[in-house]
Design a protein that fits this description.
Layout (H helix, E strand, L loop, with lengths): L3 H28 L1 E8 L7 E9 L2 E9 L10 E3 L1 E4 L36 E3 L4 E7 L4 H4 L3 E5 L16 E8 L1
Antiparallel strand pairs: 1-2, 1-9, 2-3, 3-7, 4-6, 5-8, 8-9
């Protein structure tokens, strides 16, 4: 025989389980994060920055703070291509000091600008850029160990395979 007391007791256990599950989920997302320290190459050695990745239930919050970007000569602000690349090293050769960054990260084999690594551009303001965007096309586990690149030109979001973003001018490896 089921009594009101049994129902109440089961309801309380269900509510306690639900609350514990929500709290666990919330803290799991808070602690699932990564970052990349950005450093400029030989042409722009003073570029410095940090990009953080914080997983939430709605996607990954990507936040970039970069200083000492080259400034626009003619207009206020300059756009820079900004991508996660498939490589795992910020090294290269005489022609491309970040050649080992390779191409944009594209685990789903999609055309540009739908690569996992395609991000919105950075907009320079007196040498500084701040950008924050929520993206649901990857999880942190997909990008760990890869590198993030700043290019000297904006991504046109059309040209294949990588948006005609120009030279790689800064790089950072994504780590826990």
């Amino acid at each position: 025989m089921i009594t009101t007391q049994h129902i109440s007791s089961n309801h309380n256990l269900f509510m306690e389980y639900t609350i514990k599950k929500e709290v666990f989920t919330m803290f799991t997302h808070i602690f699932n994060h990564a970052k990349a320290y950005i450093k400029g190459g030989k042409k722009y050695p003073n570029i410095n920055g940090i990009v953080t990745f914080k997983e939430t239930k709605n996607g990954v919050l990507v936040t970039a703070k970069v200083t000492n970007l080259p400034q626009s000569n003619n207009c206020i602000g300059k756009f820079f291509g900004f991508h996660i690349h498939e490589g795992t090293s910020c090294t290269g050769n005489a022609n491309d000091e970040f050649a080992n960054a390779k191409s944009h990260l594209n685990l789903t084999n999609c055309p540009h600008p739908f690569h996992i690594g395609d991000l919105p551009p950075l907009l320079e303001n007196n040498g500084y850029a701040y950008m924050s965007v929520l993206i649901n096309k990857f999880e942190i586990k997909n990008i760990l160990g890869h590198v993030i690149i700043i290019h000297d030109s904006p991504d046109d979001f059309t040209s294949q395979p990588s948006g005609n973003s120009g030279t790689k001018i800064a790089c950072g490896r994504i780590k826990k």
